[in-house]
Recover the amino acids of this structure.
C-alpha cells in the first residue's frame, strides 16, 4: 500500500466530523455563558456583552447544523454518482462505451412506460378485395405510467402508413380513440380521426401514485397475404399480449419480437402470444402470414410498420 492514502469521499472524514462537533460545542458553551455573566460591569455593557455571547452561540449552533446537512447531501450525491460510474464501467465492458452512452441517453429521454399492452388483430374479407387481400382491424389498449417522480406531460403519437392502401374502402383509417380519464387530456379539442397522425397530449401524475392513463385505439388497415405486419414500439412496454383472429385457411401465423433479445420469446396459447419481458423503444412485433401450401407465382409482401 502507498503511504499517501486518500480518504474515502463516500464518507465524511474524521476532521469534518470533529469540526462540526467542535462548532456545536462552542455554540452551546456561548449559550450557557450568556446568562448570567459572572463579571462586574456596568449594566448596559453587561447587557450588550450578554446579547453578543448569546447571538454568537446561536450562530455557531446554526452553522454546525447547516454544515452537517450540506455534508450529508454531499455524501449521498457522491454515492449516487459512484453507483452510476460502476454501472457505466460494467456496461462498457459488455458493449462499447459509445453504444452504452447512447442507450443511456435513450433511457433518460423516455418519460413513460406502457403496461398491460393488449393487441387484437382481426382479418376480415371484403367483396371489393381479392382472395389474398384482407382488411386488418388493429385494436390496442394499454395503461400509460410515468417514469418520473414528478408530474409529467406526454404526447402520444401514432401514425397511419399509406404504403398499402385502398382509397375506395377508406383504408387505412382511424376508427376510435379512448382516453380514460378524459380529464387526463391537456387539450379538450375533439380528436381528429381524419388525420394520418394521431396526437394526444396527456398529463400524468408522479411515479408511484398508481394512477395510469388508459389508452385504447382502433384502426383499419389493408394487408396482402402471404406477407407480414410490423408493429414497432415507440415507448417502453412491459406485459405484451397479442391476439389474432380470422386467419384464413391455408395460412399459418408466426409472431416474433424484432430485434430479438434474450428471454423475449413469445408464448403462444390459443392464438394469443404473450411476453412479460421489457420491450425497448425501437423493438417491435413481426406477424408473419405464411402460406402452408406451395403456390407458384405468389410473392410475399410486407405491410406498413405501425407504432
Amino acid at each position: 500500500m502507498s503511504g499517501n492514502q486518500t480518504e474515502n469521499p463516500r464518507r465524511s472524514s474524521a476532521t469534518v466530523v470533529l469540526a462540526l462537533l467542535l462548532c456545536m460545542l462552542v455554540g452551546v458553551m456561548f449559550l450557557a455563558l450568556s446568562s448570567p455573566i459572572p463579571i462586574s460591569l456596568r449594566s448596559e455593557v453587561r447587557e450588550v456583552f450578554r446579547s453578543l455571547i448569546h447571538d454568537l452561540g446561536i450562530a455557531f449552533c446554526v452553522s454546525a447544523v447547516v454544515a452537517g446537512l450540506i455534508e450529508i447531501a454531499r455524501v449521498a450525491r457522491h454515492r449516487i454518482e459512484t453507483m452510476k460510474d460502476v454501472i457505466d464501467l460494467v456496461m462498457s465492458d459488455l458493449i462499447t462505451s459509445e453504444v452504452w452512452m447512447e442507450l443511456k441517453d435513450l433511457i433518460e429521454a423516455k418519460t413513460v412506460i406502457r403496461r398491460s399492452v393488449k393487441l387484437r388483430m382481426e382479418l376480415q374479407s371484403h367483396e371489393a378485395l381479392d382472395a389474398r387481400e384482407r382488411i386488418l382491424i388493429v385494436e390496442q389498449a394499454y395503461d400509460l405510467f410515468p417514469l418520473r417522480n414528478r408530474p409529467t406531460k406526454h404526447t402520444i403519437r401514432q401514425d397511419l402508413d399509406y404504403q398499402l392502401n385502398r382509397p375506395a374502402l377508406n383504408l387505412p383509417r382511424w376508427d376510435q380513440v379512448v382516453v380514460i380519464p378524459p380529464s387526463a387530456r391537456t387539450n379538450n379539442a375533439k380528436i381528429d380521426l381524419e388525420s394520418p397522425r394521431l396526437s394526444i397530449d396527456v398529463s400524468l401524475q408522479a411515479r408511484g401514485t398508481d394512477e395510469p392513463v388508459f389508452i385504447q385505439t382502433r384502426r383499419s388497415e389493408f394487408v396482402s397475404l402471404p406477407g407480414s405486419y410490423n408493429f414497432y414500439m415507440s415507448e417502453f412496454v412491459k406485459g405484451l399480449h397479442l391476439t389474432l383472429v380470422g386467419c384464413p385457411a391455408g395460412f399459418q401465423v408466426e409472431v416474433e419480437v424484432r430485434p430479438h433479445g434474450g428471454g423475449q420469446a413469445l408464448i403462444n396459447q390459443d392464438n394469443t402470444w404473450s411476453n412479460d419481458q421489457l420491450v425497448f423503444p425501437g423493438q417491435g412485433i413481426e406477424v408473419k402470414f405464411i402460406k402452408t401450401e406451395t403456390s407458384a407465382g405468389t410473392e410475399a409482401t410486407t405491410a406498413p410498420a405501425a407504432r
In short: Residues 57 and 289 are 82 Å apart (CA to CA). Residues 1-6, 295-301 have pLDDT under 50 and may be disordered. The longest strand covers residues 133-146.
